Amino acid sequence: MQGRKMANEGQTGTVKVKRGLAQMLKGGVIMDVVTPEQAVVAQEAGAVAVMALERIPADIRAAGGVARMSDLSLVQRIMDAVTIPVMAKARIGHFAEAQCLQALGVDFIDESEVLTPADDKYHCDKEPFTVPFVCGARDLGEALRRIAEGAAMIRSKGEAGSGNIVEAVRHMRAIRDAIAELTVVPKEELVVRARDLGAPLELVKDVAANGKLPVVLFCAGGVSTPADAALMMQLGAEGIFVGSGIFKAAAIVENGVAQYDENGFPRVDPELALRYAKAIVAATLHFNDPQAVVEAHKSLGGARAMSGIDLRSLPESAMLSVRGN
Amino acid sequence: MLGVQGDVAEHLSALADSGACGLTVKTPAQLAAVDGLIIPGGESTTVIRLLERFGLDEPIVAAVRAGLPLWGTCMGLIVAAREVVGVEQRTLGLIDVSVRRNAFGRQTASAEVPLEIPALGSEPFPAVFIRAPWVERAGAGVEIVATYAGHGVFVRQGNVMGTSFHPELTGDRRVHAYFVRELVEGKPAAA
Fold first, then answer.
1. Could you tell me the CATH number of the domain that includes residue B41?
2. Could B111 and A11 be called an inter-chain contact, meaning their C-beta atoms sit closer than 8 Å?
3. Among A228, A246, B33, B143, which residue has the fewest nearby CB atoms (within 10 Å)?
């Protein structure tokens, strides 16, 4: 009743309210989870939000096929299991999946290249939604196009599920460098710059004036150690998405074979996952203090990070970050 | 400014507009250097754990009980409250209120509201509520400065105040000015 009353008297779904939730997540770590149990581990470790999805990106990559929005009853169980915000992924351009997630009551939608795109040309029109959206970007033009469509938060794409930080670094640097450049070019160049970026002039002017995106910028795709998190924060990320980095590192592997439970979910060592997740949270908070990052690494007790992929060995068809532009 | 997690930069810029010099506090040593503390918006579940893990919880309680002015916005109000109703969650117990988390609903119920705050003048305040708590019960020593939907959303007790909403997300600096004027410069006795 009170929620409805609030909606009548106040204005819900405004730009300020949608971007505002992302502002509340700053300095934090958002963790991919596939079960309510993993969500509880993430919350206990100090995650500011969880991303509910069917498989972590490393497993999506391994399984192939079409990756879609998660089973909604599972998303609901994750929402019921934790008090922190719950995000969920929709396919690029699949506004009906996004409508379902909003109706279910998730706190944030990730229109994500990690899932198989539903539309190979267009993203969702995110503005009419009450729920905020986060989208990936490899450069400033892509970030501003998503913001123009109504995204309330941007994450550098990186290469999800790769365990390799190189793409995340490339994308974060590309975005930050392009922002820095806009702040020093003469005003008469901005129209042409906007054309070259493929972004609306108003947003280009806003970035030139303020030296930052008008929404919060997180990093995603490839963070797998505490030092990776500290690196990305120092490169200008305002927070970190960790996808496969935690629960892949804590996966139970016997004789080189990943183990699955009766529901088909990868079996993970919850104690190791908690330790790993806590270490990434600590490094994100104290990213400027190498001694604290050392402590975070030591707390892993010798646990190995997930194995990574040399991205030069991947054909473009296997790259997730090239989806959507 | 408590700089563990949340919208710290927004508060720092609002403080600068209000004539105060904002510092970021991540360690007990940094806490000792400030004349007032703001706990920003963020995730209360996360921040209470991090305060414990990095040894900031006890120093904050001791400093505020000894008179350090404290303002909690949204998450900060939850962290400062005596208790949270409905879910089990540790708090610092610095203001005698019981709060309900996500009292208005999940994110889709978050809203902007023109809020009447008589203490700040007749012009309504542009209050931004994001997954906001409200005050369900307040002790006798607590002043309810503003209410919305029948519940306290701006409360004060001695040197501690809390708001359910986020003045740092608006251009209106009246709540920041109130904190600096009444709690930091006014030096009220500890609650």
1. 3.40.50.880
2. yes
3. B33
